[in-house]
C-alpha cells in the first residue's frame, strides 16, 4: 500500500486532533463520523504508525500524532489565512452599484469603459433601477440617484446639476416656425413629449412661462427619458429634457432648443447616496473620486454648449414631487 498520505486524510486528521474527537471534526467538515474514522484509519495504515489513543469517544494524540499535528496545523493555518486574504482582497475589489435607469444608459454607461480600463481586476455589478436602494435589505455599496437628495439616514452628496429646456429636432423646429413666429405659440402648436419620471415636467414649466396648453392637444408620455429623447430627435415632438442626458444630440445638432428666449432651468439633480459605513471602503472611495471628476467635466461641457446655443441659465431649487404628479419649483436666481 502506498505510504503517500492523501490530502483528505491529513485534513481529517488535523480536524480530529484539534477537536479531540470524531463527531465535532465531522460536523466541521460536513461529512459523516464514519467517513472521518475511515480516513484516520487509512492514514495510520499509510504512515505505518499509530496517531491516536482511543479512549471511549476521546482521541488523544500519540507522540507521532503530536509531531504530525504540529506540522499539519501550521500548514492548514497558512492555507486558511491565505484563503481569507484572497477573499478579503476580492471583496475589496467588488463594487455593487445601483443607478437611475436613463442616467445609467445615456450618461454613466458610455463612461464606465474608462473606469474599467483603469481598474481591470475589479468586479463591477451595475443595476439600473428606478427605485432607490434599501440598504438594510439589499447588498448594494453605492447608489447614484436622480432625485431631490432627500434620503434621510444616509450619506448623500450632490455630484451633478441638471439643465432642462424644451428640445426638438431641427426639422420639427422648422415646422413650428412655419406655424407660428412667436416662441410661446410654437409650444402651443407642438406635440409635447413628457418624461413622467423627470423632476421638472411640462405642467410646471408651462405654468412658469405663462403658457396655457391647448385643451385637446395630444401628449406623449414615457417613463424613461431615453425613450422621450429618441422620439424628439426623430421629429415626433418637443421634449422638456436634460442637457446632461441629451448632451450628445445637442452637441451633434440633432436636438436644438425650441427658442433661446426660454431659460435653461438649472438645479441639483444627481447624487451619491448610501450608508456612511460604505464610504470607508477603498473601492467606493476610488469610484466616487472618479465619478466626481467625470461629473465636473460634464458640468463644464454642459455650460459650454448652453453658452454656444446662446441660452440663459436660471438657477432654481431642486423640484419636489407633490400630489397628482406635479412638482413644486421654487426659483432661486438667474445665473
TrEMBL record:
InterPro entries (alphabetical): LysR-type_TF_proteobact-type (IPR058163), LysR_HTH_N (IPR000847), LysR_subst-bd (IPR005119), WH-like_DNA-bd_sf (IPR036388), WH_DNA-bd_sf (IPR036390)
Pfam families per UniProt: HTH_1, LysR_substrate
A Gene Ontology molecular function term of the record: DNA-binding transcription factor activity
Domain annotation HTH lysR-type: ranges: 5-62
CDD domains in UniProt: PBP2_GcdR_TrpI_HvrB_AmpR_like
Any one GO biological process: DNA-templated transcription
Record keywords: DNA-binding, Transcription, Transcription regulation
UniProt keyword DNA-binding present: yes
Family: Belongs to the LysR transcriptional regulatory family.
PANTHER family with a match to the protein in the record: HTH-TYPE TRANSCRIPTIONAL REGULATOR (PTHR30537), HTH-TYPE TRANSCRIPTIONAL REGULATOR TRPI (PTHR30537:SF74)
The name this protein goes by in its record: LysR family transcriptional regulator
Species this protein is from: Roseospira navarrensis
Amino acid at each position: 500500500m502506498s505510504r503517500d498520505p492523501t490530502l483528505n486524510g491529513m485534513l481529517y486528521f488535523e480536524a480530529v486532533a484539534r477537536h479531540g474527537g470524531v463527531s465535532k471534526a465531522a460536523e466541521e467538515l460536513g461529512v459523516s463520523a464514519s467517513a472521518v474514522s475511515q480516513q484516520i484509519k487509512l492514514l495510520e495504515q499509510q504512515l505505518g504508525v499509530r496517531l491516536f489513543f482511543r479512549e471511549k469517544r476521546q482521541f488523544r494524540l500519540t507522540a507521532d500524532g503530536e509531531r504530525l499535528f504540529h506540522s499539519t496545523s501550521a500548514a492548514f493555518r497558512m492555507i486558511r489565512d491565505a484563503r481569507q486574504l484572497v477573499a478579503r482582497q476580492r471583496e475589496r475589489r467588488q463594487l455593487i452599484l445601483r443607478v437611475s435607469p436613463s442616467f445609467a444608459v445615456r450618461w454613466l454607461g458610455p463612461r464606465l469603459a474608462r473606469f474599467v480600463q483603469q481598474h481591470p481586476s475589479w468586479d463591477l455589478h451595475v443595476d439600473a433601477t428606478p427605485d432607490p436602494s434599501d440598504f438594510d435589505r439589499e447588498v448594494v455599496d453605492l447608489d447614484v440617484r436622480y432625485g431631490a437628495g432627500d434620503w434621510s439616514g444616509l450619506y448623500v452628496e450632490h455630484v451633478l446639476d441638471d439643465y432642462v429646456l424644451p428640445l426638438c429636432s431641427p426639422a420639427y423646429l422648422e415646422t413650428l416656425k412655419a406655424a407660428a413666429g412667436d416662441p410661446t405659440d410654437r409650444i402651443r402648436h407642438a406635440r409635447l413629449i413628457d418624461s413622467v419620471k423627470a423632476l421638472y415636467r411640462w405642467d410646471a414649466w408651462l405654468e412658469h412661462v405663462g403658457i396655457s396648453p391647448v385643451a385637446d392637444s395630444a401628449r406623449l408620455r414615457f417613463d424613461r427619458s431615453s425613450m422621450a429623447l429618441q422620439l424628439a430627435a426623430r421629429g415626433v415632438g418637443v421634449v422638456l429634457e436634460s442637457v446632461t442626458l441629451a448632451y450628445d444630440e445637442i452637441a451633434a445638432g440633432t436636438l436644438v432648443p425650441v427658442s433661446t428666449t426660454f431659460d435653461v432651468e438649472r438645479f441639483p439633480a444627481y447624487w451619491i447616496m448610501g450608508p456612511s459605513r460604505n464610504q470607508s471602503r477603498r473601492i467606493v472611495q476610488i469610484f466616487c473620486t472618479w465619478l466626481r471628476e467625470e461629473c465636473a467635466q460634464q458640468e463644464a461641457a454642459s455650460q459650454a454648449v448652453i453658452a454656444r446655443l446662446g441660452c440663459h441659465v436660471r438657477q432654481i431649487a431642486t423640484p419636489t414631487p407633490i400630489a397628482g404628479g406635479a412638482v413644486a419649483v421654487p426659483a432661486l436666481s438667474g445665473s
